[in-house]
Amino acid sequence: MAKSTHQDFVRGSGGNQARTLVTAGSAAIIVIVLVVVATAFVYPKATEPSGTEVHLVLPASGPGLKEKSKVLLRGAEVGVVKSIDSTDPYSVQVDIALDEAAAATLTDTFDVDFRPANYFGTTAVNLIAKPGGGSISDGQTIARDTAPDFTMSTMLEHGSIVVDGSLTTDVIKSLNKVTRYASGLSPLIETMIVVSDNISRTQKQLPSTLLGKLNDITAVFPDANVEALGALDAITNAQFNRLPDGSRGVDKEYHDLMNRSLTVASDGLFGAIGTLLASHAAELTPVVTSVKYLVDEVPGVMGNASNMTKLQKAMEGLQDSFKGPKGQQTLQLRILLDSVPGLAQTMTAMGAKTGTPSRPDKNTGPTDRPTKKKEN
Known about the structure:
Layout: H1 14-47, E1 52-58, E2 70-73, E3 76-85, E4 92-98, H2 100-105, E5 111-116, E6 123-128, E7 140-143, H3 152-166, H4 169-202, H5 207-236, H6 252-279, H7 281-296, H8 298-302, H9 305-320, E8 322-323, E9 330-331, E10 333-336, H10 341-349, E11 371-374
Parallel strand pairs: 1-7, 2-6
Antiparallel strand pairs: 1-4, 2-3, 3-4, 5-6, 8-9, 10-11
C-alpha cells in the first residue's frame, strides 16, 4: 500500500502534492532534454562560421592546426578553419570559411602556408593573394602541391637541429675567443669614440675649409711618397745590405765589426763614464752644482729680445767701422784733439795720420772735453 507524502512547501492533500511533484519533475526533465538538444545540435549550428566555404587539399598540415584556428590574409583575420581531415595518407583536407570581403578580393590562384597567428605561436592558415585566376565560389575545392610550414614549433625544431649539428666544442671555443678579442678591442673602440667626439667639439671651421686644407696636404703627398720610397731604397741599398763584391746580401764581417764597435763604445766609453760618475760622486756633485748656478744666470745677463736686438745693431755698427780690402781692414776713427795738443803730438809720433781737425759746431758752445767722431 502506497504511503502518502507530505511536503511543507506544497499545500493540499497528499494526492495533490504527488500530482504537483510529478508535474514539476516532468517539466524539469523536459527542460534538461531541451538544453541537451540545443547544446548538441542547435548551438553548433548557430555558432558555425558563416561565409564562403573553401575546401583545401594540401600535402601536409601545420603543427597545432585545429578547428576554429584563424585564417589570415596580409596579417588580418579573414576566416576560420571549420574542419580538418587527415585520414588520407597523401593529403590533408582543410575546410575554411572566408568572410564575404576576403572571398570577393581573393582569386583561386592564392598560395597557402602555415605560420603563427600571435606572439604565443598559435598556428594559423595564411593565404597569399596572387594575380590572375577566377573568383572563389562557395564550396570550391582548391588543391596545392606545397604548403610551407613557418610555425613556431617548426622553427624551434629546425633551430635545435642546427644548434645540435653545428654548435660543437670547437665552435664554442672559437666563439669564446671572439668574445675575448671583442672585449679587448672595446677600450680601443671607446678611445676612437672619445677622440671623434673631441674632434667634433674642437672643430672651429666649416667642412669646406677643412677639405680645402686637406687638398693642400694631398697636393704634396705624391712628393712625400717619392721621398719616402727613395729613403726606403737608400736603406735597402745601403752598405749594411751589400757584400764586398757589391751584390745584395748581408755582410757578416761588417756587421760583426759594427757590433764590436758598439760593444767597445758601450763598455769602454759609457761604461767608463758611468764608473767615473759612480766612484767620484762626492767630487763631481759640487762641480755640477757650480756649473748649474753659473748657467742659471745666463738668461738674466742676456736679457730679453730687445737687448739682443740692440747688441746686433752695435755689432753691425762695429763691422761698418772696419774698411779696406779683405784681410786688410782697418778701424777708421778720427780723434778730435783740439783741446789736448800734447796728446795730438804723441799720436803723430806713433804714426797716426794727421788731418784737418774738426771744429765744434757753431751753434754749440765750446767744450773742454775731447770728443770722438766716427768717420764715414
